[in-house]
Write a structure and sequence with these properties.
Structural class: alpha+beta
Protein name: Enamine deaminase RidA (YjgF/YER057c/UK114 family)
Organism: Maritalea mobilis
Number of helices: 3
InterPro entries: RutC-like_sf, YjgF/YER057c/UK114
Radius of gyration: 14 Å
CATH class: Alpha Beta
Helix content: 25-40%
CATH architecture: 2-Layer Sandwich
Shape: globular
CATH superfamily: RutC-like
Number of domains: 1
Order of helices and strands: EHEEHEHEE
Oligomer: single chain
Number of strands: 6
Distance between the termini: 30 Å
Length: 131
């Protein structure tokens, strides 16, 4: 089985030379995803709204890969300010309350000042949510 590349159509993917997601066998690797609304190429100011947009983009990529958020086994959260953690946890808890993947949160700089959160996930197709 070969590798499948998934794109959002963002011009940055081509410019930077990456795919939104890679499917390799039953594994799906979703690139770090920031809070852009890719339909409008707008970035909300609010970190919680950015996190919601991250999940919408990730969910779409996983669906295209034949997976879902329930299949996520690993998540990395990158925030630019430790004070954003609680707002981001509100969103991650909403999407992952029943999934509870292994996760790490890091406070760091991102490549553009308007970016406040970036989320990266790994999924195993048909992993299903644990009971």
């Amino acid at each position: 089985m070969g590798v499948t590349r998934i794109s959002t159509g963002s011009p940055f993917e081509k410019k930077a030379g990456y795919s939104r997601a890679i499917v390799d066998g039953d594994m799906v690797y979703v690139s770090g995803t920031t809070g852009y609304d890719y339909a409008t190429m707008q970035m909300p100011e609010d970190v919680q709204a950015q996190a919601e947009n991250c999940f919408l983009t990730i969910e779409k990529a996983l669906k295209e890969a034949g997976a879902s958020l329930n299949d996520v086994v690993r998540a990395h959260y990158y925030i630019t300010d430790a004070d954003y953690a609680e707002a981001v946890f509100e969103v991650t808890g909403k999407y992952f309350a029943g999934v509870r993947p292994a996760a790490t949160m890091v406070v760091c700089g991102l490549i553009k000042p308007e970016m406040k959160v970036e989320i990266e996930v790994t999924a195993r197709i048909a992993a299903g949510a644990p009971s």
